[in-house]
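Reviewer 2 asked us to include a model.

Predict the structure of this chain.
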Amino acid sequence: MELSKSSYYYRSHMTLEEQQFEEKLTKRIEEIAAENPGYGQRRIYKELRRDKSKNYATVNHKRVERIVREQNLQCKQPKAYRVTTNSNHKFPRYPNLIKDIVPERINQIWIADITYIHLLGGFVYLAAILDLFSRKVIGYALSVTLDASFAIEALKMAIERRHPFPGCIHHSDHGVQYACNDYVDVLKEHKFVSSMAKQGNPYENANAESFFKTFKYEEVHLNDYHTINDVIERVPYFIEQVYNARRLHSSLGYVPPNEFEALQAAAASDTQPAPVMVSCQL
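Predicted model (structure tokens):
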């Protein structure tokens, strides 16, 4: 059979207890991959590290990589593209104000963009607003057309949820939905500062593109949408219960946006000086 002697005499060095742990580890990795189809071995490893109750914190990342490879659990990411930006308009355009800014708090920079969802009989469009500091989706809306009304609806949802202070930067592309008077009037009413990516340069709104990429690979391409009602049912669930609440983000230290914001709020409260108690005598 042309086998080497070392292969013939090889015996597993795992004890029975180690073999049982390997089986449980493999099963848990398969569960994580099934729950999060877009996870690669790195995020699976980080998810295991968070699961301290099962004593997976000591598992080496190379071991996870081996099991992912052996079980063929690598995520597969198809490509799709449809133009949703119409920059052929005469509305004012604004310079990119966030190019060299690293946000330090929530409601400092919001980013907005639009993507599409392919149905059997056409398309549904999703407008989303994200807080750049936490990558959390704070406003969204769906529409069967690309008019500005659903982009405004997403913006108003974000405003109602977050109540930003004046001076929050609103960053988008040059699309007519974000440049038109109706949208800009809402921004001015709430004292936003407008910022836009350079025309034809998706890298200047890369974080919004990153969210849509995740949304497509981990939700849209894995579900068989037939009608807009299917979209209306699934999209809010993915945004609220999966992306914001559970999905690990490498840029946030592998925690979900909700948890990241909670940790930042707790850290900020710890640094606040204790109130000074002043006694007075009548």
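The chain is about 40% helix and 15% strand. The longest strand covers residues 109-119. We have added this to the supplementary material.
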